[in-house]
Amino acid sequence: FLLEERHYPVDFGYQTEYKYSINISIPKGYQVHELPKNQSVQLGDKIVVFKFFQQEGADQIALTFNLSLNSSHIKVEDYQGLKDIFKHVTDVQNNSLVVLKKI
User: Fold this and answer.
1) Whole-prediction pTM value?
2) Contact indicator for 69, 19 with CB cutoff of 8 Å
3) Is the dihedral of CA 72, 88, 39, 66 positive or negative?
4) Can you tell me the distance from the alpha carbon of 93 to that of 87, in angstroms, rounded to the nearest whole number?
5) Cα–Cα distance for residue pair 61/97, rounded to 1 Å
6) Tens of pLDDT along 14-29?
7) Fewest beta carbons within 10 Å, which of 30, 31, 53, 64?
């Protein structure tokens, strides 16, 4: 989504959902120092929904990434919002750090 403005709709071809989960075991002698923030954004009436969240347990961390494209066609007037959501998704993928500290 590199265009500044678009004059025709975006066609993904079909509705789809991307879900990724990871469980990280915290080694003995370490504790969580920093976790990524929980985030949720959507376009319009749930046309596109992005959720990223973490859960911390006693010795595990669970991270979940969920991107739902609930419409295969995105209107021209929603292009900027779609572009913003994908920028946000890319930022989360590139900058979500789990920092552990030795105790």
Assistant:
1) 0.89
2) no
3) positive
4) 10
5) 12
6) 999 999 999 999 999 9
7) 31
Give the Å distances, CA to CA, from 21 to 55, 57, 61, 63, 85.
11, 15, 10, 6, 20
Tell me the one-letter amino acid at 47.
I
22 vs 63: CA distance, rounded Å: 5
What are the beta bridge partners of residue 81?
none
How far is 1 from 10, CA to CA, in rounded Å?
Answer: 10
Distant-in-sequence contacts of 47-52, Cβ < 8 A, 24+ apart: 47/71, 47/74, 47/78, 48/74, 48/81, 48/82, 48/85, 50/85, 50/88, 50/89, 50/92, 52/92, 52/96
Q: Which amino acid is at 34?
A: E
Residues 6+ apart with CB under 8 A from 28: none
The per-residue pLDDT for range 63-90, each reduced to its tens digit, is 999 999 999 999 999 999 999 999 999 9
